[in-house]
């Protein structure tokens, strides 16, 4: 086998993979831009809907303010852009799945696709939990805690950054069952060893809640307790994902791959 033929067979699949990756990334960006274009006309209405949990608890005759000159224009569009990416998550995950699925074993495809769907739903559930449960309690507490004589008037850009951080924190923390299942599925831990670490998980949940939420006990507890419950849920379902020998998932995958490569090279030499 000549050196030129070796380079041609080695580089061509790599270049084709790069082209496919580029195309799928462009589709992801295009999807986000299409959703953004559809929602851009309703940017102010969408921001008003996001501000409802705070406005309900603000004192009478108190409003939100805009400190920066351009923030009344750019802040709603920033929200729409983030919302467009949020809505496009299922399509983005599908593109990711379509790119990696051909290189997976049958067992891996059966396992990863449900995990992708479940992780998407759990992230949406975390965001919904933050908006409908956490925000009313947090903003009610924060506005009531203002000292006498202090007018509560929140800047719209600061408010957006605050709620996006909480959305992300609760969305990621609701992925704990997926993290737990993946750890057990890959064989790094066992359900029994995870159960033995339950006290550390509880303490860690409250520590993470202290870092990811505002400095009040209510929001910290509202994040830590669901994290603990989700850990228990993931621990329960992880028992179904304990790795077992399977005919369509070779144990000695590396050795089998080497044998396949040797066979291909012998055929090319012939």
Average predicted confidence as pLDDT: 81
- State which percent range the strand residues make up: under 5%
Low-confidence stretches: 5-10, 247-255
User: What general form does the structure show?
Assistant: flat
User: Helix- and strand-based class?
Assistant: mainly alpha
Summarize the amount of helix as a percent range: over 70%
Domain module tally: 1
How would a crystallographer describe the biggest sheet? none
Number of H- or I-type helical stretches: 12
Radius of gyration: 25 Å
Spatial gap, N to C terminus: 9 Å
The arrangement of helices and strands along the chain is HHHHHHHHHHHH
Q: How many β-strands, per DSSP?
A: 0
Any descriptors?
270 residues
Can you offer a commentary on this structure?
- With 270 residues, the protein is mainly alpha-helical.
- The protein has one domain.
- Helix content is 76%, strand content 0%.
- The chain contains twelve helices and no strands.
- The chain has helices at residues 3-39, 43-50, 52-55, 71-87, 89-100, 106-144, 156-173, 176-185, 191-196, 198-212, 217-238, 253-269.
- Helix 5 packs antiparallel against helix 6 (106-144).
- The longest helix has 39 residues, at 106-144.
- The termini are close together.
- The model is unreliable at 5-10 and 247-255 (pLDDT under 50).
Short description:
The chain is mainly alpha-helical and 270 residues long. 76% of the residues lie in helices and 0% in strands. The chain has one domain (3-269).
Spell out the blueprint of helices and strands.
Blueprint: H1 3-39, H2 43-50, H3 52-55, H4 71-87, H5 89-100, H6 106-144, H7 156-173, H8 176-185, H9 191-196, H10 198-212, H11 217-238, H12 253-269
């Amino acid at each position: 086998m000549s050196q030129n033929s070796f380079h041609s067979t080695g580089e061509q699949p790599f270049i084709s993979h790069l082209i496919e990756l580029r195309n799928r990334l462009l589709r992801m960006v295009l999807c986000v831009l299409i959703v953004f274009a559809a929602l851009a006309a309703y940017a102010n209405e969408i921001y008003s809907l996001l501000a409802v949990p705070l406005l309900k608890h603000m004192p009478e005759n108190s409003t939100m303010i805009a400190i920066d000159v351009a923030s009344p224009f750019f802040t709603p569009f920033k929200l729409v852009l983030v919302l467009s990416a949020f809505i496009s998550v299922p399509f983005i995950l599908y593109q990711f799945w379509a790119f990696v699925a051909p290189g997976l074993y049958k067992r891996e495809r059966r396992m990863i696709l449900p995990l992708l769907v479940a992780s998407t739903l759990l992230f949406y559930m975390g965001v919904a939990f933050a908006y409908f449960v956490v925000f009313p309690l947090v903003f009610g507490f924060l506005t009531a805690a203002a000292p006498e004589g202090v007018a509560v008037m929140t800047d719209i850009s600061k408010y957006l950054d605050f709620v996006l951080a909480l959305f992300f924190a609760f969305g990621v923390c609701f992925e704990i069952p997926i993290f737990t299942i993946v750890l057990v599925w890959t064989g790094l831990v066992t359900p029994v060893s995870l159960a033995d670490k339950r006290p550390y998980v509880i303490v860690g949940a409250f520590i993470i809640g202290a870092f990811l939420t505002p400095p009040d006990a209510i929001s910290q507890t509202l994040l830590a307790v669901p994290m603990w419950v989700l850990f228990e849920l993931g621990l329960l379902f992880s028992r179904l994902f304990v790795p077992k020998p399977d005919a369509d998932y070779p144990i000695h995958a590396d050795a089998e791959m080497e044998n396949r490569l040797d066979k291909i090279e012998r055929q090319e030499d012939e």
